[in-house]
Amino acid sequence: MKRAILAILLIAAAIGGGFWWHQRQAPAAAPAADKPAGEAGGTHVTHDDQGNTVISMSDEDQGDAGIVLGNPAAGTWSQEIKGYGRVLDTAPLAGLVNELATAQAAAPASALEWERQKTLSAQGNTSARALQAAQAAAQHDQLAIQSARDRIMLGWGAALAGRNDLTNFVQLLTSRQAALLRVDLPGGESLAAPPPSARVVTLAGKTIQAKFLGPVTDVDPMIQGQGFVYSVQPNDLSLAPGQAVTAWLQLPGEPIAGVIIPRDAVVRQEGAGWVYVMNKDKGGEAFTRKKIQLDRPADNGWFLEAETGGVKTNDYIVVTGAQTLLSEELKAALSAD
């Protein structure tokens, strides 16, 4: 009996030892395969035949990243010429208008006093000195009116100097309810007739319409181009003196057809603007980053010509999450290095 038990124990020990030996000799589990170069977090970056960056991302990852696609809207662009503008400081104009108003208020009284002195002089009831003083005062006030008008004309143009509501208009300017803009065309550019209106774009990308008032009275020494004065009323953008703007002056001709790229669809990289366009032949899981021109700002984005802009109305572009795609692209590029 004891021999049988001992035999069983020996057999069990042998089996256990064999299993342990097998485990020691079994190869270690294969390490996880390295991700391909350029892949990070499910994102894969390549380049197409034209050198454009192509970023691949699964539908699931796109959903997690908040990627939203849309078609650019069709739009038209009136032919325009670009001008460089700034908001004028109208404090000197306000000073001249106040001088003019003061002289205009004094002139009637001094003119009446001169007439009275002439009557008294004819009657022998006044001195020659008093008559001369009254004459000098009346002429002084008339010259003050003319001087103020001349300086307004020379400094601000005939359109402003000839306004019947000049005093009220200046009050709007000083309270920032209206603004005056100077717009200069690039050197060598000129227009036979100035456009009656201009589309003004601030550095922040906001737009407002301006009305033509008249030509400028001098030439900008730096730009050396044709210049115009425009008014903005009401001043809904709170344009302030010295503020730089870009003005687009409409030219005659047929509008150009194209698309409007939403502002949120544009990313900035390498000093240029880009959009991500979905590759239709990749099942919606790849996007090509395409360079676009940002020289035609529209109210709700950027205008691209249909023929040369590189994006069409039937293209799907990333309208939400473009910056996220760019970040993923840059992370993938860093991991590849």
Q: What can you tell me about this protein's structure?
A:
This protein is of the alpha+beta class and 337 residues long. The chain has three domains: 39-77 and 256-336, no CATH class; 81-89 and 180-250, Elongation Factor Tu (Ef-tu), domain 3, CATH 2.40.30.170; 91-166. It is 36% helix and 29% strand. The protein has seven helices and 18 strands. The chain has helices at residues 2-25, 59-65, 91-123, 128-156, 158-161, 166-174, 322-336, and strands spanning 39-40, 43-47, 53-57, 68-70, 73-77, 80-87, 179-184, 197-202, 207-215, 227-232, 244-250, 256-262, 267-269, 272-278, 286-292, 297-298, 301-305, 317-320. The chain has a six-stranded antiparallel sheet with strand order 1-2-3-15-14-13. Strands 6-7-10-9-8-11 form a six-stranded antiparallel beta barrel. Strands 5-12-17-16 form a four-stranded antiparallel sheet, with no helix packed on it. A hairpin with a 2-residue loop joins strand 13 (267-269) and strand 14. Helix 3 (91-123) packs antiparallel against helix 4 and helix 3 (91-123) runs antiparallel to helix 6. The longest helix is centred in the N-terminal third of the chain and has 33 residues, at 91-123.
